[in-house]
Design brief:
The protein has one domain: TIM Barrel, CATH 3.20.20. Helix 3 packs parallel to helix 4. Strands 1-2-3-5-10-11-12-14 form an eight-stranded parallel barrel, surrounded by seven helices. The protein has twelve helices and 14 strands.
Length: 380
Amino acid sequence: MIKNFSVLYVGNIDLEDVGSDGKPADERRYPNERLMQSMDTAEQVAGLMDDLGFYALWMAEHHFQREGYETIPNLILMGTHLAGQTKQLKFGCAFNIVPMWHPVRLAEDYAMADILTDGRIIFGVGRGYHSREVESFGAPVIDNDANRELFEEQMEIIFKAFNEDSFSHKGKYFTIPPDVEYRGYDLEEVTLVPRPKNMPVQMWQPIVSGRTIDFIARNGINGVVGLTGESLVEGIFEQYKEANAKYGRDLELGENLALEVGFYIADSQEEAMNKLRPFHDERYKWFAPFGFVRYADEQGRVWGTPGAPARTPHIEDGVQQRAWICGTAEEFVAFLRELEEKYPALEHVILHWAEGMPRAEFMEQLRLFADGVMGEFVGR
């Protein structure tokens, strides 16, 4: 039963000249005083969401983005700061890009944030997809197999650091502790100081492939399915349930998953689509080249695979795929009721902030959603 509504804000600043015919994404370049705007935006949105009763504000870790789309480099730091300015809102890491971190430092930072905020930081992990970011930090991402191998070893270390009083690790990429003498004895193990207060640590990871599903099911990680066509969502939810059963966890459909959808509320679907169109198109100008069009054709083939569409999507495509919900508040309520019937254990819905939408307009959309939709589900 759906009960938690959150927002994904990837850190965009207000952009001018947006839309498919607007300024090309690679030609955007902003001075530091403009790029800092995302910090102020996060503060304003967090305050509003806290007042309206939302569950969590999820943000995204990214680096070097002078283009202005994703400009928050440290989610744990940002979330800890915002927790001090709000009362109950949680702050989700969507996602800490593990290959760009030393795993022990990431575990330490999260543990401190968990203690300082009394559990209001949600730990999320990802492998990364921007070559400019990940490769600049000295980790592989173009070589997908090497990226996965590094990530999985790092995750093994993070699990040990969180769950064991003391630990050691010897792998391809890391030896912890090193073979050195310390205060007259040879090191054999270390302890994470501090360890998290709230145990076990709930972890979230985006689901992008079947191999991801097996990994997160094997390790008891929750999954986020974002801006994905409904036929693909159905397959992912089924696969996640089956994979968990293989590892001894009998889950209901939707359990331990979050579904992220785009949205716009207006007096009609046509009005909502027309108002959302330039912001939707601006998003895909930036993201489509990275492969983030998770739609399926009539044969079930994912866009971009042989025989399936390979073009940049229009808002009509997103609405048809039911990855973007446009229309009245009542129509959004009906959509969520259908989700509950289909996925009875789904508790988390995340609202996507289309990257080109100005801050003021999105905050107004949050008010409309809270007034017309959220009250039908929260507190039942």
